[in-house]
Structure formats: structure tokens, C-alpha cells
UniProtKB/TrEMBL annotation:
The active site is at residues 47, 112. This is Aminoacylase-1. InterPro entries: Aminoacylase-1_M20A, ArgE/DapE_CS, Bact_exopeptidase_dim_dom, N-acyl_aa_amidohydrolase, Peptidase_M20, Peptidase_M20_dimer. It is an enzyme of class 3 (hydrolase). It comes from Aotus nancymaae (Ma's night monkey). It holds the Pfam family Peptidase_M20. Catalyzes the hydrolysis of N-acetylated amino acids to acetate and free amino acids. One of its GO terms (molecular function) is aminoacylase activity. Binds 2 Zn(2+) ions per subunit. The keyword Acyltransferase does not apply.
Length: 373
């Protein structure tokens, strides 16, 4: 039982032998080859969004694989696939004995789907984060149904806005003037007209991608107690995603003026208000981009750089000065994140592991930057 062939070796023995191959000899132990350089951060979030179970073809938490190889599960695209792809790529690289100048860190963070306030937003302010000395980060992107891969260099700013309208209450049978509902209706109309304008701007210009215009959806209406009681207060909640080139101060003034134009007693508050949109440069002035895009080119991957329509933890990383790219290596895959029947083909998943095994060496070998010498 002690000398089996390599394919039969007990996995614990394999692990032990791999560990022995790492030359941790003092006084220069081989922990990573140049710890003075900033590190590469591979970030992923562990939380997922809720499901409407009855709308799924398979139990969304069973990870059912159909006869064609599609794996159905909440998180199959967003973004449990990437967590495992990072781990598998790093495992392969370690197994092959690779060493790189830059250290690679992986973070698995909570709460991204509810805004990251107890997750990445806090973490980037902690000494533990500073200690990672991250110089560049990879985080999630979106699948691409074509042959190409999308890579995200910026994000729209989430602004969650609740407009509250107050007015005269009274009996539901009367023509009461100055009601909360009338004024709220005006604000809703102004905002939905703005939505239509942005939609038309997107539709009429084939060069514009979704992330380049501002979107808004009316996502909640609240107020009222009975059919025949005119309420004194009503509110409408909106999910704005503001394009990174928008003047945020002017945009807030616009919100203010829509509310003012609706009449007295119309105010708004923010559930989320991102004020630091950042763009990670996608030209060769950015050595991280140069390494990323070169590695993709070497693999014959077509890249489509875009602004992410949604928001991820990348915004917290970019805001503390860590350039980040949002990349989910899923081509020929419909965008199904947050949707029913979220799924990923196992071949696409496995190809993603291969892609990271090429990307990570390139990124972790970026020579010292001017700021690091
Ligand atoms: C705005 S907080 C981020 C939550 C989620 N990722 C979204 O974009 O909706
Ligand atoms: Zn996500
Ligand atoms: Zn998500």
C-alpha cells in the first residue's frame, strides 16, 4: 500500500510532496519572489441574489447538470464560478511549480448584492486590506453571448432615490387639491421621461453601449391605507445607474428641480449614492491593461471593453486607488445573472480556469512600476 503509481497516490501524499517542492530555505525562503512589489487581488463575492424557485427548471441550489453539460444554479454565473476558477487556476499554477514576482491574493467577500456596506466597503478601510498591498484587482463582469469576452473598466454609479410627496389628506370622494399623489405623479413622469430620453439616446447610437447612458427604473411605490382615504404621504423609489461621465452635482440639482417643479412638500433621500466613479485606463499607459490584453491576445480571445451597467465591489477598490477590471470568462453564454435558470456550461467553466492560468502569470509578472522602484 506504500508505493502506488502516481495516479493512485493518496491525495494527502500528493499534497505533502507538492509542499516539499516549494523551496522555503532560509535565509531566503521562497514565499513569493518579490514581496516589495504590489500584489494582484482576485476578488469574488460569496453571496447570491434570491430565487423564484417555481420559475426554475431545476432546484437552484442543487447545481443540477443536464445531459448537455449545463449547470443550473443561483451563482452559476454570479459569481461562484469565478471563485472556483481562481482557486483552480492558482492550484494548477502551484502544482506546476510556478513562482511569480508578485504575490497573488484571493478575497472572498460577503454582501456584494446588498451594496457591500458590511463587505468590501468596510474591508478597503481596514489595516488588513492595506497589508495586502494590492496593486491591481480582478473582479466579476458579465457573460457574453457571442464569441467575444467583455471586460469592464468602469461602472455606472448606483443612486437609489426615494421621493416622498406630502399633501392634503381627506375623503376619497372629494376633489382635494394639492394631494401627495398628484405631486408624486409629476415627479414620476419627469423621471420616466428622462428614462425614455436616455433609452432613445442608446437606441439611436450603435456606438453607445448600455453602460454609457444613465438608466432608471421605478422599483417601489408606497403609501395609502384605504380606497376612500386620500393619503397625506406617498413615495416612489428609483434605481438610477448614472453613467461615469455625468456631472454628479448637476445631476443631483436635476433631481432637486424635478421635485421642486412638482410642488410644495416633495423631498428625496438616498438609499445609495455613489460619488466616486473611476475609470481604469484601457491603453498601454496602464501596465496592468497591457499585460491583461496581451495575455488575451496570445490566447486569441477577442475583448470588448465596456462600462458595467450594474455595480460591483470593483467600485470600492478603484476608489481607494486600486485599478480593477471586471472580467467573467464566459463567452457564448447568455447573460443570466439574477435571472431564473441561471446556468453555465461546464466546458465554458473549464475554459475559464485555463484562461486564468494564462492571465495570472502575466499579471503577477508585471515588472516594477515607476511608483514601486
Ligand atoms: C448597487 S449595490 C450592488 C448590488 C448589485 N451588484 C447591483 O448592481 O444591483
Ligand atoms: Zn456579482
Ligand atoms: Zn449580482
Amino acid at each position: 500500500m506504500t508505493s502506488k503509481g502516481p495516479e493512485e497516490e493518496h491525495p494527502s501524499v500528493t499534497l505533502f510532496r507538492q509542499y516539499l517542492r516549494i523551496r522555503t530555505v532560509q535565509p531566503k525562503p521562497d514565499y513569493g519572489t518579490n514581496p516589495t512589489l504590489s500584489s494582484i487581488l482576485l476578488n469574488s463575492h460569496t453571496d447570491v441574489v434570491p430565487v423564484f424557485k417555481e420559475c426554475w427548471s431545476h432546484d437552484p441550489f442543487e447545481a443540477f447538470k443536464d445531459s448537455e453539460g449545463y449547470i443550473y444554479a443561483r451563482g452559476a454565473q454570479d459569481m461562484k464560478c469565478i471563485s472556483i476558477q481562481y482557486l483552480e487556476a492558482v492550484r494548477m499554477l502551484k502544482m506546476e511549480g510556478h513562482q511569480f514576482p508578485r504575490t497573488i491574493h484571493m478575497t472572498f467577500v460577503p454582501d456584494e448584492e446588498v451594496g457591500g456596506h458590511q463587505g468590501m466597503e468596510l474591508f478597503v478601510q481596514r489595516p488588513e486590506f492595506q497589508a495586502l498591498r494590492a496593486g491591481f484587482a480582478l473582479d466579476e463582469g458579465l457573460a457574453n453571448p457571442t464569441d467575444a469576452f467583455t471586460v469592464f473598466y468602469s461602472e455606472r454609479s448606483p443612486w437609489w432615490v426615494r421621493v416622498t410627496s406630502t399633501g392634503k389628506p381627506g375623503h376619497g370622494s372629494r376633489f382635494i387639491e394639492d394631494t401627495a399623489a398628484e405631486k408624486l405623479h409629476k415627479v414620476v413622469s419627469s423621471i420616466l421621461a428622462f428614462r425614455e430620453k436616455e433609452w432613445q439616446r442608446l437606441q439611436s447610437n450603435p456606438h453607445l453601449k448600455e453602460g454609457a447612458v444613465t438608466s432608471v427604473n421605478l422599483t417601489k411605490l408606497e403609501g395609502g391605507v384605504a380606497y376612500n382615504v386620500v393619503p397625506a404621504t406617498m413615495s416612489a423609489s428609483f434605481d438610477f445607474r448614472v453613467a461615469p461621465d455625468v456631472d454628479l452635482k448637476a445631476f443631483e440639482e436635476q433631481l432637486q428641480s424635478w421635485c421642486q417643479a412638482a410642488g410644495e412638500g416633495v423631498t428625496f433621500e438616498f438609499g445609495q449614492k455613489w460619488m466616486q466613479p473611476q475609470v481604469t485606463p484601457t491603453d498601454d499607459s496602464n501596465p496592468w491593461w497591457a499585460a491583461f490584453s496581451r495575455a488575451c491576445k496570445d490566447m486569441n480571445l477577442t475583448l470588448e471593453p465596456e462600462i458595467l451597467p450594474a455595480a460591483t465591489d470593483s467600485r470600492y477598490l478603484r476608489a481607494v486607488g486600486v485599478p480593477a477590471l471586471g472580467f467573467s470568462p464566459m463567452n457564448r453564454t447568455p447573460v443570466l445573472l439574477h435571472d431564473h435558470d441561471e446556468r453555465l456550461h461546464e466546458a465554458v467553466f473549464l475554459r475559464g480556469v485555463d484562461i486564468y492560468t494564462r492571465l495570472l502569470p502575466a499579471l503577477a509578472s508585471v515588472p516594477a512600476l515607476p511608483s514601486e522602484s
